[in-house]
Specification:
This protein is 34% helix and 23% strand. The protein is an alpha/beta fold. The chain has a 6-stranded mixed sheet with strand order 8-9-10-5-11-12, sandwiched between helices. Strands 4-3-6-7 form a 4-stranded antiparallel sheet, with helices on one face. Strands 1-2 form a two-stranded antiparallel sheet. Helix 5 packs across helix 6. The N terminus is likely disordered.
């Protein structure tokens, strides 16, 4: 796991709900400005602008067709925006490939898990870290270099076991990923994402298809990771989960950001209510 964040300064606020330390004063690693995505004559995202605060669990919600998934895909590099910019840690990442964005510390999970079914759970997790020396054939066979490859592989294996233990799926380490339940796959996907040592994680409906027992476990893990300094942007259709767990919520409607605020503010916002009821805003 990542090192614990430094002790709070006077400029930081302790979140009483999760125990996490949130920075005040405009520390926003992810900034989306004027984002637009067109598919032929259809505009899926229309001038979306928002930012995500460091150390936060931020929800991104909206009725079906609001543009949430397209926005996620533009941020993660799956789609190239038609217009607008995505900035991460002060760097313009607009239009970069997904692996380039992941290398900068911004990773995502998927609504439908994408594990390698014919590899074991442990192998799936060990495969995630980038720049492994063993991936280079000449390094693996060159005397003097081979030793460092073995050392790195041992370190990766140790960390993989730590991840499996954290997500409580270490008992499945030698099971093929294709044999896992939907909920177990979501836990494995989170473990793989965290093995890349990211700064921020985009969660695309991480609770879809997960039974209530594993759902609670996954939410608890997300809060633990947030307390350890991770930042999350969270797309989820279960409004109860969003309202009870996110400290900031962004609402999209018809490709635009309709409003944003705390759970209490979103619950009482008439425009949000109308949007979810399918009425004109």
């Amino acid at each position: 796991m990542s090192e614990s964040p430094p002790e709070s300064s006077d400029a930081e606020l302790a979140d009483q709900t999760t125990g996490a330390t949130r920075r005040s004063g405009g520390d926003f690693p992810l900034q989306v400005e004027g984002l637009r995505k067109e598919f032929g004559g259809i505009t899926a995202v229309d001038d979306a602008t928002f930012q995500v605060e460091a150390g936060s669990l931020t929800g991104l919600i909206g009725p079906n067709g609001a543009g949430k998934s397209t926005t996620f895909n533009c941020i993660a590099g799956v789609y190239t925006p038609t217009d607008g910019t995505v900035t991460f840690q002060g760097e313009d990442i607009t239009g970069l490939e997904p692996y380039q964005i992941a290398q900068r510390g911004l990773v995502r999970t998927f609504q439908i898990a994408r594990e390698l079914d014919e590899m074991t759970v442990l192998e799936n997790v060990m495969l995630a870290p980038r720049d492994q020396r063993g991936e280079s054939l000449w390094r693996a066979v060159t005397p003097g270099v081979r030793g460092s490859v073995v050392e790195q592989e041992a370190a990766v294996r140790d960390r993989a076991w730590e991840m499996l233990e954290f997500f409580e799926i270490d008992h499945l380490a030698q099971e093929y990923a294709g044999n896992l339940s939907g909920g177990q796959r979501k836990l494995l996907e989170m473990a793989r994402a965290l093995m890349t040592d990211p700064e921020m994680v985009l969660l695309d409906e991480p609770l879809a298809g997960v039974n209530p027992s594993l759902e609670n476990k996954l939410i608890d893990h997300i809060h633990d990771l947030r307390a350890d300094g991770y930042t999350f942007l969270f797309v989820e259709h279960d409004m109860e989960v969003i309202m009870n767990n996110c400290d900031h919520i962004i609402v999209m409607h018809q490709g635009r950001v309709l409003t944003e605020g705390s759970a209490e503010e979103i619950r009482s916002n008439e425009e949000v209510i109308e949007a979810y009821l399918g009425e004109d805003v």
